Amino acid sequence: MSKKLEKGILIVFEGIDGCGKSTQAKLLFEKLRSLKFDCILLKEPSSGKWGKKIKKLSLFENSISPEEELELFVKDREENTRENIKPALQEKRIVILDRYYFSTIAYQGAKGINLKYIENLNKSIAIEPDIVFILDVEPSVGLSRIENRKKKEKLFEREDYLNKVRRIYNSLKGKNIIKMDGSQKIDKIREKIEEIVLKYIEKYIDN
164-174: per-residue pLDDT in tens? Predict the structure, then answer.
């Protein structure tokens, strides 16, 4: 039987390609499931209509403008929020999300779109997360970790571009944002994340 919470909790993992966020999101999901918490693991782009279109277009570099790309990400996020994130939170579940609107701010912002405009556009349709983990690594480190991926999976991987993306990530601030050194060993990062999350969740366990 799952442990009951007083409210739904949204935990987001962010960072440049190869930072380890997907690994840590999965590890946290497995840990919380083992502790009998009702949680789901989602990612963006989603597996919905707009997410599939983004993935298809991403195979072809510069196939659409940054503005068109932003529009697709917002549509996908709107659908993902409506169909998946919001219902799960209303059911008082824990939602672990691999990428969210912070990625759009960083990646599309690095392509020249105004950061405040992207932020306001997304905040009008997105749900504010309880915790945002930003795993920080040098682009050279991230790229070396994913060098064995197929070419078609290498999204946004030019080092100069990722340096811009990283700078934007590092400029993001908020009481819910926690920045971590993603170059540390996986288990060390995992342990710290678990400690932070369990301490936060403890406040909302329905006894």
Answer: 999 999 999 99
